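Whether sequence alone determines local backbone shape is best considered at the level of individual chains. The sequence in question and its structure tokens are set out directly beneath this paragraph.

***
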Amino acid sequence: MEDRTTVSRLFGASGIFYAGLIDEILPHLTTHEYLFLTDEFFREWQSTSDYNVARENQIVASELIDKAHLAAATALIRTRQWIKATCSAYDCQNLVAWASAARGLIESSGDTLDGLINIAGSIANAHQVISSAIRGYQSTRGLNFAEIEQVLDHYVLATWMRGPRSEVRKAKDNIEYVRALEPGVPKIVEFYHRICGLTHPSSSSIDYLYDVRETGLRLDVGRDGIEIDRLCNEFRDVLPDSLVFACNPALLILKVLHKFRMHPQLSELKKVKWSAIPAWVTIEKSLGG
């Protein structure tokens, strides 16, 4: 566990809260086992005498809920790892490691926001249909959650590739994920460009290694901590605010999934001030209060 002082220095009260909450719920999240049928097996089953629409809907609904849970859980775990990495680099006074970790956390936060922001609301809107399907109620109409699943598939499966923009597995450019955060995190794009300059082979990546004086230029390899603190002070709210968008979409999903009782019930989520999250008001109404 990293030093709380470092977490507070870099991420403020948000960091202390979210890091602690993730640490508390992680042991429960890892007790669940996911089961996803392959497309080949599913198609073969559809042509057998055992096939029926109610069972198909049950499979589709259950896999949808499991996929949402998996996405939320991995988003939180990934965020927790980036917090650790950023704090570790800060404690080691290693500027390039800190900039790399901070950059990773921001890109990860934007990816989570982009991929998961609407999932909790979409599932809440369809919770009655999903619940009926999971219980195996008879139906003559097959369910289709393609719109929700496509977003989840992009989040879980996306990778950098050269291909058509419509390809679900094609990841967006990193800056697109960062810009997704910009409305809620002022100055994040400027901060992102600054830390990218430190991690790319540019002049910014070596400027901090020397000190310019009236008598000349001298190498100075002890400036890492100074430069990190300077950036933290100049962009004081960027990392704490990014953390909010890295965690809240995933926490909202886990909260909504309590409705279906397929996954571990997380009493720790009672610590979250749901009323302070704008999306929760609409979600709560969809769930019936």
Observations:
- The CA atoms of residues 130 and 258 lie 13 Å apart.
- The chain has one domain: 4-286.
- The chain has 13 helices and two strands.
